[in-house]
Specification:
The protein has 174 residues and is α/β, with parallel strands linked by helices. The chain is built from six helices and five strands, in the order H-E-E-H-H-E-H-E-H-E-H. Bound molecules: ligand HJL and zinc ion.
């Protein structure tokens, strides 16, 4: 499956997100070419309980799949700490919008979550992120997410061609 096809699948997920004027409707998935199912999980904004982002929903759903049985009392970020060592070597995050690096008060950013996903040896578990658009400067100004991921050694790839559709879906309800 090529990048554009996978990004299109992520966009299909974004369409399921309930419109909310104060965020973007984003879709994401985790892809591992060496795994038998290849698409490990999908997610979209507000899919999981709470003010959840698409990438965060992916991590929560995959944690459930691995029966990690985590509850909100375990604390934010614990899902990612437990999930990191379980991820296959070649996992790639596809997301219609670059991961967030700033959020409304009290919520961990997706960049921070990605950096918490670590292998047993301590290296980052997700080494590549593919996204369709940068975050528009509407809510939090310039998103430094890409830069932060890259300085942690994560490759961030922009795949062009779906920008118009992605932004239409992201801003529906604004
Ligand atoms: C990404 C998402 C999502 C955003 N970005 N990559 N995935 N909703 O699922 C980024 C945007 C924030 C707003 C509001 N959106 O979501 O900057 O309420 O949604 O914390 O800044 O912040 P909250
Ligand atoms: Zn986010």
């Amino acid at each position: 499956m090529d990048d554009l096809h996978l990004l299109r699948l992520a966009l299909d997920c974004a369409r399921k997100s309930p419109p909310k004027p104060t965020n973007f409707r984003v879709g994401a998935l985790l892809y591992s070419p060496s795994s038998s199912s290849q698409i490990l999980t999908t997610g979209y904004t507000l899919e999981m309980p709470g003010n959840t982002h698409a990438e965060q929903s992916c991590f929560l759903k995959l944690a459930d799949f691995h029966a990690l049985h985590l509850t909100p009392e375990d604390g934010d970020g614990v899902v990612e700490e437990c999930l990191g060592p379980l991820l296959p070597e070649d996992v790639v995050l596809y997301t219609t919008m670059e991961p967030c690096n700033k959020r409304s008060v009290g919520n961990m950013t997706c960049v921070e979550r990605i950096l918490r996903l670590r292998r047993r040896g301590g290296g980052v578990a997700i080494k590549k992120v593919v996204c369709g658009v940068s975050e528009p400067e509407k809510f939090v100004g310039a998103n430094e997410g890409r830069k932060k991921l890259e300085s942690a050694g994560i490759e961030v790839v922009h795949v062009g061609g779906l920008e118009k559709e992605i932004l239409e879906v992201a801003t529906a309800g604004h």
